[in-house]
Amino acid sequence: MKCKYAIKALVRLAANYEKGYLQTADIAAKEHIPKKFLEQILLELKHSRIVNSKQGIGGGYYLIKHPSKVSVADIYRIFDGAIALLPCVSLNFYEKCEDCDDEKTCSLRIEFIKIREGARQVMSLTTLQSLLKTTESQAKRKK
Amino acid sequence: MKCKYAIKALVRLAANYEKGYLQTADIAAKEHIPKKFLEQILLELKHSRIVNSKQGIGGGYYLIKHPSKVSVADIYRIFDGAIALLPCVSLNFYEKCEDCDDEKTCSLRIEFIKIREGARQVMSLTTLQSLLKTTESQAKRKK
DNA sequence: TTAAAAGTCTACTAACTTGATAGAATTTAT
DNA sequence: ATAAATTCTATCAAGTTAGTAGACTTTTAA
């Protein structure tokens, strides 16, 4: 949920890139996300330096990074952690296996690295920009 | 954990394919898996018709399907459910999105289907047989 | 025929995660 | 000053996960 909501909110912010502020309440309403919950999510994104915000009247959130520089993989890692299925094959959240005798020759590891790369590649290639493009072309199709 | 343990146990059973029974206690000891926990896991695999068992002295578990016919995707689905990151893009565990206005034109869906396909392909191509081959070639390398 | 060795089944628990809510505090424009 | 906005911390209920416990059944070998 969190990750999905984050991506939806970020796509909105990407559509508004360098065009001012978007308010939490607005995004929440449009995407049907519980407002208070979205607050937390946006806050986490702020701490991760993906978005920034301005308080007070007329304030709100805005995207700091260029939409092409924010991938689904980035967002996934913030909210759901490792992309890898096993901690021992994770690049960003590595943890040693307790039950494994020799990590270097573990066949599971070798195969799970392939799986991780499969997922990681697609998730890294999918950015806010590519999501935005799909959104726009879908909107056009609908007309 | 469950999924990892299951795969480890299945690789052992695959190595013993059509060569008789392997006991829970044995596999548990070799793979450092809590025995009682492994019992549950093997039972689930039996209910999923991946393995079968024989009770009594000299009994144990054995693989029913050919190692090339059991993929990591199959096992993952038994223990962890959907491969897709969102239920609304899952093939085997589909559920409708509550917050989505129009599934047909949802840009998230379109992109997440690509991600699912990336993961699904690699996980479907990785079978007990391919894991076994890696195990064997690793054992050889070690000599 | 009986005891031991094996799997079967059901229930339970502690710790953690998730999705969400609540409310007080802070900042800013007018 | 005040209203509109974000910020921050705490809390909660429900669900999941990893693992444990124990009673039961089936099989076989002595």
Residue runs with pLDDT of under 50 for 5 or more positions of chain A: none
The Rg value of chain A, from CA coordinates, equals 18 Å
Largest sheet of chain A: 2 strands, antiparallel
Biggest interface and residues each: A-B, 40 and 40 residues
Supply the helix-strand structural class of chain A.
mainly alpha
Q: Can you give the helix content of chain A as a percent range?
A: 40-55%
Overall geometry of chain A comes to elongated
Task: Measure the end-to-end span of chain A.
Answer: 30 Å
What is the number of helices of chain A?
A: 6
Describe the model.
The structure is a homodimer of 143-residue chains. With 143 residues, chain A is mainly α. Helix content of chain A is 55%, strand content 6%. The first copy, chain A, has helices at 2-15, 24-31, 35-47, 72-80, 107-125, 128-142; strands spanning 51-54, 60-63. The first copy, chain A, has a two-stranded antiparallel sheet with strand order 1-2. In chain A, a hairpin with a 5-residue loop joins β1 and β2 (60-63). In chain A, α1 packs antiparallel against α4. The mean pLDDT of chain A is 91. At the A-B interface, α1, α5 and α6 of A face α1, α5 and α6 of B. Chain B binds a DNA duplex (30 and 30 nucleotides) through α3.
